[in-house]
Amino acid sequence: MALSVSSLAAAFSHLSLPSTSTSKPHPAPLLRLLPSASRRAARLALRASAAEAAEPAEAGLPAEEVVAVEEEEAEDQLSGMALRKYVKQRLPGGFAAQRITATGRRKTAIARVVLQEGTGKVFINFRDAKEYLQSNPMWMEYCKVPLVTLGFENNYDVFVKVHGGGLSGQAQAICLGVARALVKISNANKVPLRSEGLLTRDTRIVERKKAGLRKARKRPQFSKR
Question: Is the pTM of this model over 0.85?
Fold first, then answer.
């Protein structure tokens, strides 16, 4: 029973099967009558035709929207283990073996920063910065403030390994680390960064709790008797 793939696809495309409420759809009744080889070819033809029908009409979209869709797909591919492998490929020998490195601190957070020529991507602890910082616009802005100050926001990729503290303190530690790394690239970057206060280590930390008090300075309610 030799049937061509195109004839099978044309035959199945005209079939109108009733929609059922079950989660697993039943196979087409004509597929059961075919030999296994023909059945396999028919399934492949149906999948190809369904994929062509499901493709968005990108030909009618503007070029900018098509590029944006492609960039989103590329970002989705760089996730999880694939992103970890990508970062390790960009940093052969680890963070300590890189040329442009710096350390930033804020509260109890410590960030080791590596700068490489790139397109402005930021990776924190082998994860995308947007995912790691929970899409918080202020924290994400902290990571790029030194680059934006010098106009290098699209010239360098930032790789960070950070620990300690919370996300707010970590983001500010990354800011200091990026600023110090930019000074290592060129001493001419020191003046504009210093004028913006980006090279000053913020020494403020939480004051320790005192004995007999509820917090650093909060006292229990006074009772005369």
Answer: no
